[in-house]
Each structure stands twice: as C-alpha cells, then as structure tokens.
Amino acid sequence: MKRQTLQSWLAIVATLITSSTCSSLDSLVSGQEPTKEVLPHPQTKPPGPALTPQEAIKNMVVPKGFHVQLVAAEPNLVNPVAMCFDEKGRVWVTESFEYPRRSPGPGQDRIKVLEDTNHDGSMDKVTVFAEGLNIPSGIAVGHGGVWVANAPDILFLQDTDGDGKADKREVVVTGFGRDDTHELPNSLTWGPDGYLYGLNGVFNPCRVEQDGQVFEFTCAMFRIHPRTRKFEIFCEGTSNPWGIAFDSQGSAFISACVIDHLWHLTESGYYHRQGGPYPPFTWKIGSIVKHKHQMAAYCGIVYFDTNSYPEQYRDVLFMGNIHGNCINADRIQRAGSTYFGTPQDDFLTANDAWFMPVAQKVGPDGYLYILDWYDRYHCYQDANRDPKGIDRGKGRLYRVTYGPPGKTPHIDFSQETTEKLIEYLSHGNVFYRETAQRLLAERRDPQSHLPLQQLVSNKSNSQKLRLQALWALISQGPLEDSFHLQLLKDSDPSIVAWAIRAAGNQGKVSLDLRLAIEALNKPEAQPDILLQIAIAAPKIDEADSLQWLINVAAHCKDDGLLPQIVWQNLHPFIPSKSDRILELVEQKDLSKSPVLSELVPRISEKILADSK
Fold first, then answer.
1. DSSP for 416-437?
2. 504 with 540: CB under 8 angstroms?
3. In a 10 Å sphere around its CB, with 0-12 CB exposed, 13-18 middle and 19+ buried, how is residue 74 labelled?
4. Of 33, 225, 259, 282, which sits 20 to 30 A from 508 (CA to CA)?
5. How confident is the model at residue 19 (pLDDT cuts 50, 70, 90)?
6. Model confidence, pTM
7. Is the Cβ–Cβ distance between 418 and 445 less than 8 Å?
C-alpha cells in the first residue's frame, strides 16, 4: 500500500466526516426417560391427547368459503418432513423415524410416493421409493431422478428399471453437518434459473469440498446446477431457515425461526445471524418485516399464485407457524431493489397444539397443501430431553379447497408435447407454469427456443408470462447472443435485470454483451438493474469489476439492500486493488453520491486493518 494512497484515503474520510455527508460508522441427546412430566417447550399448558385426523379438521378455522380436506394420514403417512409434487401430480414425502439422531450413516428413514388414483382428493396408493435414509430433510423431483437432502449428503436417486423403487444412488455433494438435526440441509426447491436451491441452519457447521474448492458455512442458501453438479453458496445468514419461495419476478424468500420470520435473499448477500461470528467487515442485511405472528417458530413457505382462490388470497406468502399452530400470511411489495412485508389475517388456525406444519405447496388443483408432522413436541429441547417421547406414528397431509372439495385433475406432463408445455407457461396455476418450465429445461428441445423468444419479445404479453418464458430459456443454457442483447434493451427493468443475471451465471460472455451491460450502469437505472450489475461484476470474465461496482455505488439512491450488496462484492478486492479503487472514487462527486460516501470509511477501515 503506497503512503500517498493511504494519506489520500484518510483525507477523503476526514472530509466526509467534517461535511457530514456519510453515515456514522443444542446439548447432546441424553437418551434418558424424564423423571417427571415436563411442560413441552414453549407451550403454556399440556398439549392433551392427540386428535384423530377427522377431529383435527373439525377444530380448524379457515376463512369463509374454504374447506380443509384430509389427503393422507397414518398409517400411510408417518413422521413426514418434506414433500414435493411431480409432473404426474404425485406427492413425494420423506419420513423420519431417526430424528433427532445426530450420527451419520444408514438409518430407518424412507421416501414414499403418494398417488390419488381415483382423483377424489385422497391418496389411496402408497409406494416406498427408497429406504435406509437418516433424517431426509429435503426432496425435489427432476432431471431424471429424485434429489434428497440426507446429511452429510445431497443424493440423486434413480429408478432405472421402472419398478417404482430407487436402484441407483449418486452422492452429488457431501460435507453437510449433523450437529443440530433441526437445522439440516432442507427445502430443496427449483429456482427460476433452473438451479436447485436449498438451506442450512446456523448451528449446523458444514464443510463441502468440490473440484478443489472448499465451502465452509453454517446458515446459508446454497444451489446446485442439475447438469454440471456445480455447488455454490448463494448467500449467508439468518437462523434455522426452512422453506424457499420464489415470487412472480423470481425473487427468493425464506421463513426463519427465533429472529424475524421473513427474508428476501439475494445472491452474494450476508444477512443478520441468530448467533455465531460474522466474517470480518460484513455489512449485514436485515429482514423485510417489522411485525411478528404469534411465537417465532416457522417451517415452510409458499408463494401462492393460482386462480383457484379469490383474488385477496393470491400473490400472498403462506408460512407454517409451529408454535402458533397455524398458517400465517404476509403480502409483499417492492421497496427499491428489495421488498417489504405486511401481515395478513391468519389463513388457518388449527386450535391443536399437536399441529406442526412443516411444508406448504401449491398442488395441481391450485389448492394449498399442508404437510403436518403432528407431534406434541415442537422443539429440540424436548426432542433431546425425551427422544423416546417423540410420537413416531402420526402424520397428515391436508388440502385447503375453496368451495366444496372436488375431483383432482388427471395430469401427466411427461407425456405432453413441447408446444403444450410452452402453452402451460401462461396457466393460471403456478404449479403448471413451474412444472412446464422444469420439463422444458430437462428436454432442452431446440424447437422450443424460437417460440419462447417470441413470447418474451412480445411486449403485449404480461410480465409474468414474459418472465416465465425467459426462465424456461435461461434454464436450458446460455442465451443466443443476439436475443440476449435484445433483452438488455427491453423497457421492462425486470427483463433487463434477468438478462444481466443470466450473463453473470454464464460467466464468459461476448464483448458486445459486456459493453451493453456496462452501458446500463447509469444514474437513471432502476434499482433491480443496478443490483444485478453489482452481483455480476465479479462473475463476468474480463469485466472491469471495480469500475462497475464503484459506478453502481455512485448511481445508487436510498435503498435497503443495494449498498450492502455492492460492499459484499467490493471488499474482497481490498487491499490488493486499493490504488485502483481510490482512483475511481476520486473521479466521483461524493457530495452527490451518499452511498459511495458511506462506503469510503468502510474501505478505509479495511485498508488500515489489512495494512497492519
């Protein structure tokens, strides 16, 4: 570090301070029987005896016009942890008898496939797909098999002979911890970009190694590319998150426990942690809510976007509240490059302390499905104190219909033509749209490219359809250069932002694309566009990363997310590129760049710390 450079930085900091243009700077399982009856944590009275599924439904309260129907229950469904739907409308469920076991290795847990063969809304056929698992905490179907979070591994299971049972097992990545079996890798969910996303909790340290790269993390969102198997940390922070939802613009939301319940997660961000140290120089990001629902124990989240419910219940985030024994609801609205959530009335109240909603999904019929672990014990304190007291013989799956329960649709998207799948991208039920997009990504049919490009290019189409078609293209691989350039000139900032994000994921792009992205980095740019430029800056080969980041900081207005994302991507370049950063900062008018002014003391602090 040159002396004159350091002196220049200190001079800038002094000026900023003078002019006031910158901001001020789980215990081991005992295995012993309890000596006396203990009130389960954090309940205020004994939970009472378990209810039958029919009795439980009678106790439930839902809005007028809605009805709760039992889809599956014990003995066909016991100790359910995670679920997903496939392209045939079948439900895949993981069951755990091993919980709360910490030791890795083969166990008694399994994966079941539930089918409604007569389409009356009740699952009447049960197939055991895989056994020998150990607390399988996440599941997703796609790309020729079933993806399972089974710490320490993420597994890919296949049925190669068509008998309905897994006969081939691949360890995609390994190294997930088991220190806290409430915070295992979970919530495997397909993202709009075609990656498989998942979560891990704050007290569950992990060390994943792949291709010479080491990832050490606790609370984080990770993702895996389904074809290359590449593993990445998408962002870090929160607590023991459980549940991932993507809204109609492709933004990611999660629910979390103990701390605030709702978070908008963005690539490269570092969010508030429930506990544990932050990496040096972290500028943490907060939640998107200022309210709470009952007691803070959340499990599962879904962005409900179907026309099967009245309008007031659409485009809402539904979340399972374990301690509150209900389904909470929040509505989100844009706030610059991030969002702000406001509370809605509870959607379902169980009036039963045993009700434990662990997952919520939108089904092929457009209704909300709720997976219920159903146990008097909610927390690790009770599971560790009295593992033999855990109820291991119950589990329920419900659907909440609007109007009297009717028939479920007979579907098999795997038999549909590419043209039909493209048609489903405009369907009123998000299940149809997302399933069609996933299958288009799997097929990678070259004949799909032109009609998808036409849907995106037609500005008379809704933003929802245009984005869905764009995601179907992005999920298949790199975009055609001429089409990609066209997207960067679009009048819809969301389309432009996704075009930049696609370039960042691609890494190596043409000179024309790189220059086109640079040209978008201007004062009048929308926050979404600046956000994606900041994220892509260190990812795109041969990009002038520092120039891009300093320009974004200079152009950024008051925003609850963008300054932190710029910093997270900028500070790894310090101090090795401090001279270049100083040169770029000196070219800006800091009195007109409050965000850049706020970054200068942080840059200086890191320079001084590293110079020691």
1. S-HHHHHHHTT-SSHHHHHHHH
2. yes
3. middle
4. 282
5. very low
6. 0.94
7. yes
What is 343-411 written as a DSSP string? Answer: EEEEEEE---TT--EEEEEE-TTS-EEEEE---S--SHHHHHH-GGGS--S--EEEEEEESS--PPP--
HSE-CB for 496 with a 13 A CA cutoff: 20
d(CA 426, CA 514): 32
Provide long-range contacts, Cβ within 8 A and 24+ apart, for 4-8. 5/578, 5/579, 5/582, 6/607, 6/608, 6/611, 8/582, 8/586
Of the candidates 51, 50, 60, 55, which has an alpha carbon nearest to the alpha carbon of residue 368?
Answer: 60
- With H, G, I as helix, E, B as strand and everything else as coil, classify residue 35: coil
Q: Which of 543, 541, 544, 565 is nearest to 553 (CA)?
A: 565
Q: Distance between CA atoms of 242 and 219, rounded to whole angstroms? A: 11
CA-to-CA separations, 544 to 365, 534, 547, in angstroms, rounded:
49, 11, 5
Could you give the CA distance from residue 132 to residue 107 in angstroms, rounded to a whole number? Answer: 5
- Looking at residue 279, the DSSP 8-state letter turns out to be P
What is the structure's pLDDT at 31?
Answer: 41
CA angle 64, 69, 72 (to 5 degrees): 155
**Which residue spans within 384-531 are E strands per DSSP?**
396-402
Using the structure block, give the residue that is written with the tokens 């994606």. 532
Could you tell me if 276 and 310 are in contact, meaning their C-beta atoms sit under 8 angstroms apart?
A: no
All domains of the chain, ordered by start, with CATH?
A: 3-24+416-433+442-611 (1.25.10), 53-402 (2.120.10.30)
Q: What is the pLDDT of residues 116-154, one digit of tens each?
A: 999 999 999 999 999 999 999 999 999 999 999 999 999
The conformational region for residue 445 under phi > 0 = left, psi -120 to 50 = alpha, else beta, is beta
Q: What is the DSSP pairing of strand 357-362 with strand 262-265?
A: unpaired
Q: Which residues pair with 292 in a beta bridge?
A: none
Whether 376 contacts 392, CB under 8 Å: no
